[in-house]
Specification:
The chain has 170 residues and is α+β, with helices and mostly antiparallel strands. It has helices at 16-23, 63-70, 84-93, 103-106, 144-150, and strands at residues 5-7, 25-31, 34-40, 44-48, 51-59, 73-78, 111-114, 117-120, 125-136, 157-169. The protein has a single domain (5-169), classed as Electron Transport, Fmn-binding Protein, Chain A (Pnp Oxidase, Chain A). It has 5 helices and 10 strands; from the N terminus they run E-H-E-E-E-E-H-E-H-H-E-E-E-H-E. Bound molecules: flavin mononucleotide.
Length: 170
Amino acid sequence: MHSFQDLDINTTDFNPFRLIGSDWAALTSCDGDRVNSMTVSWGGVGVLWGKNVVTVYVRKSRYTKELLDKGDSFSLTFFNSDESKYKNVLKYLGAVSGHDEDKIKTAGLTIGKKDGIPYIDEGNFIILCRKMAEIELPSEKLPEGIREKWYADGNDHTIYIGEIEGLYAR
Ligand SMILES: Cc1cc2nc3c(=O)[nH]c(=O)nc-3n(C[C@H](O)[C@H](O)[C@H](O)COP(=O)(O)O)c2cc1C
């Protein structure tokens, strides 16, 4: 296991547009011993209900959703973007479902836990979150262009909002 240092959210600079949108993240959740990660490139970091929060959007077909619904936490793990092997790991975590295989094992990843929140030990920056709310996105209320482009198959998103409990960096 690697050693991580806690970062102070008030003094840490990070660019969520680059980290989430371009570099991508592994969203990790667990239910007891069952752990899974999937790649996300949509999401947000901000302030809601007076708390620092992460927001992620997870379609109902995802195995990760099953664990997110049962568990009480999740994390976003970011990897060193200079190491191309991790882009391949993220491509794998974003193409194969935990419904079909043990992705953590196949990818050769190690799960760490901080206060019960699972994360990927091979990452170099981690946002640890305690689940606050889950909201099914009402796709039928979205503008037609968005609905037709993103929800034609009925595989709607649930929005998960988590309070940031800590930032971890190597
Ligand atoms: C770059 C990239 C970004 C993705 N972003 C999301 C996302 O934000 N939400 C989502 O539900 N799926 C997203 N996916 C798809 C899931 O990662 C993919 O379906 C994965 O296999 C689901 O794994 P699971 O069934 O083990 O949870 C993304 C895939 C890739 C490659």
